[in-house]
Amino acid sequence: MKEKVTYAVVDIETTGGNAATGDRMIQFGCALIEEGKIVQQYAIDINPLVSIPKQIEHLTGISNQTVANAPYFEDVAPMIYNLLEGCIFVAHNIQFDYKFLSEELVRCGLPPLNSIGMDTVELAQILLPTEPSFRLNDLATRFGFLHDNPHQADSDAYVTAELFLLLKQKLKKLPLVTVEKLVELAEHCTMQTNLFFKETLSDMLTMRQLLSDDLLVKEGLAIRKKTVTYEQRTHRETEHYPVGIEAKEQLFQKKLTTRKLQIQMMDEVYRYFSEKDSEHFVIEAATGIGKTLGYLIPLAYVATPQEPVIISTYTTLLQKQLLEKDSIQLNTILPFAVQAAILKSKHHYIHLAKFQEVLKDPIEHQMDAILKMRTLTWLTETVTGDLDELNLTNYLQPFWNKIRHRGWMDNAQEDLFYEQDFYLHAQEKVKQASIIITNHAFICHDLQREEPVLPNVQKIIIDEAHHLADVATTASSEVFSYYRNQQLMKLIGKRADDKSFLSRLSALAEKSNSIQLTQINMIEMSVVAFEEELAAFFDKLISYCRSELPERQQMSDQLDVQFSKTENWTLDLKKKTKILLALMEDIVFLGYEITRQALIHREQFTHRERHLIDDFFELIGTVESQKGIFQKIFRESEQNEVTWFSFKQKSPKNSFVIKRSRIDSSEFLRTKLAEQTTSILYTGATLELNGDFSYFEKQLGEKKLRKMVIPSPYDYQKQARLWIPKELKPLKQLTKKQYAEMIVEHLETVIQHSNENMMVLFNANETLQDVFSLLQQHPAFTGRELLAQGLSGSRDRILKRFFHSTGGILLGADSFWEGVDLPGKSLRIIVVTRLPFESPDRPFTKAKYKWLESQQLSPFKMDTLPKATVRLKQGLGRLVRSEKDKGVMIVLDDRLIKTNYGQQMLASLPHDLVKEVVAKEELQRNLSLFLEED
């Protein structure tokens, strides 16, 4: 009979993170689990004999008053020790709770903890691979656990126990072959978390459950089966677009509310694509009209797998939303099914054959094991193999690069997982789809390829179209950096380094005479010489940059220098560029020669060895690409191009990048997209300025667009206010420190009479960081959740935390000006710290202005002002997202009312929006009055 196991699921709250420096426990919570059930709970407050910091009080709700009459830890330590003895210790981030508690027990004269320990953070990362966050509160929300008091030990311990049981059930449902592999890898998990997997495997071996019908096992990997759905053409051909209101109401039934403005858009889109108008069409559709379904519903009646429509949107996140939310809603409305598919480049997908080989590699560190385990679980769930499903904040771990899909050098059908290949499956879905969803970056890169990936489609919708020109410019950018090229050389490596490509290729050369050791030796010598020359070249480049900059600019941490061959560009630098190019040429030639020889005798090698050759070929291709960039960089720039150097003072060489970019993409978009496509519909919420589309047209190289503006359904007079504080000082008179303090002063004014969530928008990350630092130290903001872009996690995590906050303050720049959907009371105040003009000191901006001036155009009128106006409109668009929303935008820049261009910007905002200059007292009084009105 199996011995009964008791799990003690523990959570503690403390005054800080380090018991050794005097931090103490203020609460202990524990839930006991036996035989798959929570059988008992323990919770106790503890008097720490030190003051509880304000931020801890805010986080936990535990104050000095709460614990004033509570026992000291010395009094309860024996009870806690006895409770945990003989139990398996479980915690969410065990390394904190276990270590802190053990040190406290020792301080009280008791033995240190000696329990088996398991970590639910690690288990959740492995068994819930697609979760965007592993914070306990987020997981509780996701799985519907009642969590009344987050960051209180009793509530946290109980929720962690519920999570532990859920993870136990999840593991039991995995196929046996997957669990066996997890057990092998779990030896590298934190503490004794591996026993969690071993115990479950032992239970599964006695039960011998059958493999689920929706899974298959191939070469030792359990994978979810996938199918391609084909549209039923015969049924669909009898359906006609619902022309009148009655026909639409009959189609919508109760699945979609009939909205006049949305119907107006639907009819225009259907008419445009049905008539095959030779003009391209732009529709500005204000937020709230239902733009996406406004074009998806009519598309369903004109798109077919033979003549599909491409929809391009700004981000992969919006792309995902179109497929997983909007197209699913579309199919619930229609009397027939329309297939939609996402088109992404191959590196977004996992290559199963490579993953299988990587599984055999020895574990180098704990994260390596966790990522392999997470991927094994994910393969039993995913039908796309799209790595974006894993919701990682970055994919910088070498593991991801090893398993990404790169295609095949020769015969794809030799791949052991050819029939299960995710990239081929995605391509097949695209072939059968009527609607192909992609993003602007993919389209712009594809327009530059010699062999495009996109099918030759003559109907395209560009959603969020105001981004297309900037994305096209970014897509044209080329970067050559010291660090990147050093890393490439390190990967090629030296024969003496066992992990390098040259070492592993040398082993193949000894096995097969198809690879010549002499060529490996030659490439090694070229790599060594290149590394030395590269270091010397960048040292000289840094000196050159400093000689080009005025002294005042050399004080900045980030230095940017536009490249032009001045007298400081010496003969020595010119020679070094030629030497580097020659060495890269040698490396590329020899690398391709090695892979060519290996390919001739490919049958001599195992699948693992073939993958090594494929990866080496890919690596040499990257070096060749870098060689091409380097070659282009140091020739004379064309009129519509700019090259600049950028580096940080703290680590000049490692941070040094050379960038080359197209300045204006209008000609590129005109010749590559507009003139090659019969029907293009551009749409978005902020495309015109005061009813004029000329700025938008000029950016895209379009001349005779058919135009339509669909107004906002919102009543801005009742729902929104724009206020400019009366006491503002001119920004030019303020130092950097005074400017940050001024922002904090106005934020304090706002929070004194409001507990609403507030988003503060910045133009520069440096100012954002200065303000964030001041807010953290300011007593008035104690107890508020402070979140900052780049400092508080990923964008999605920040927004999720902000959405669930009360009185939260979010500091954002760049992407937070738009694409943030926080309806209702989750966002009711936006503070704009200064008008959103881009910095004129950036080399790219300088070059763009110079290019505009060369065409007798005013950079400010033609570019700076329109771009800032669009961004201000986007910022306002974050406030009102439904008919019930109310919100206030506060602008801390008096140029909006004191300059002619400020008046132009105001004129572009909704005409019924109330715009007022308000005194401090008036702002405080009116803010609560306006937001509390029904």
How would you sum up this structure in a few lines?
This protein has 934 residues and is α/β, with parallel strands linked by helices. It contains 37 helices and 25 strands.
Report on this model:
A hairpin with a 2-residue loop joins strand 2 (25-34) and strand 3 (37-45). It is built from 37 helices and 25 strands. With 934 residues, the protein is α/β, with parallel strands linked by helices.
Low confidence ranges: none
Radius of gyration: 31 Å
Most strands sheet: 7 strands, parallel
Spatial ordering of strands, largest sheet: 10-11-9-12-17-8-18
Tally the beta strands.
25
What is the helix content? Answer: 40-55%
Kindly name the structural category.
Answer: alpha/beta
Report how far the terminal alpha carbons are from each other.
66 Å
Instruction: Provide the β-strand percentage band.
Output: 5-15%
> What is the 3D form?
globular
Q: How many helical stretches? A: 37
Chart the SSEs and their pairings.
Elements: E1 6-14, E2 25-34, E3 37-45, H1 54-60, H2 64-67, H3 73-84, E4 88-91, H4 94-107, E5 117-119, H5 120-127, H6 136-143, H7 153-173, H8 176-185, H9 194-207, E6 215-218, E7 221-224, H10 233-236, H11 245-252, H12 260-275, E8 281-285, H13 291-300, E9 309-313, H14 316-333, E10 340-342, H15 352-360, H16 366-379, H17 398-403, H18 422-431, E11 435-439, H19 440-448, E12 459-462, H20 468-476, E13 478-481, H21 482-492, H22 501-511, H23 517-548, E14 558-562, H24 571-600, H25 607-633, E15 641-648, H26 652-655, E16 657-662, H27 666-672, E17 679-684, H28 694-700, E18 706-710, H29 716-719, E19 720-725, H30 736-751, E20 758-761, H31 765-777, E21 786-788, H32 795-803, E22 809-812, E23 829-832, H33 843-854, H34 859-877, E24 887-891, H35 895-898, H36 900-908, E25 914-918, H37 920-932
Parallel strand pairs: 1-4, 4-5, 8-17, 8-18, 9-11, 9-12, 10-11, 12-17, 19-24, 19-25, 20-22, 20-23, 21-22, 23-24
Antiparallel strand pairs: 1-2, 2-3, 6-7, 13-16, 14-15, 15-16
Helix pairs in contact: 5-7, 5-16, 6-7, 8-9, 8-16, 12-13, 13-14, 19-20, 21-23, 21-25, 22-25, 23-24, 24-25, 30-31, 33-34, 34-36
